[in-house]
Design a protein that fits this description.
The chain is mainly α. It is about 30% helix and about 0% strand. The protein has one helix and no strands. The termini are far apart.
Length: about 55
């Protein structure tokens, strides 16, 4: 992996997931993505499930 890829892929109902094909991907700055996650996870509750885990 060169950099984080934040491309959203459309779910394939047949496999109940994504295939990773037919989607245009764009590389991002991995360290910048980690920094953003650390700065916003407490504010927005990222990484938590509805029951708080």
């Amino acid at each position: 992996m060169c950099y984080a890829d934040t491309t959203i892929e459309i779910k394939d109902e047949e496999i109940n997931g994504v295939r990773g094909f037919g989607t245009i991907h764009m590389c991002r700055d991995w360290n910048g993505l980690v920094r953003w996650t650390e700065e916003t996870q407490e504010k927005y509750g990222m990484g938590e499930t509805p029951n708080g885990n």
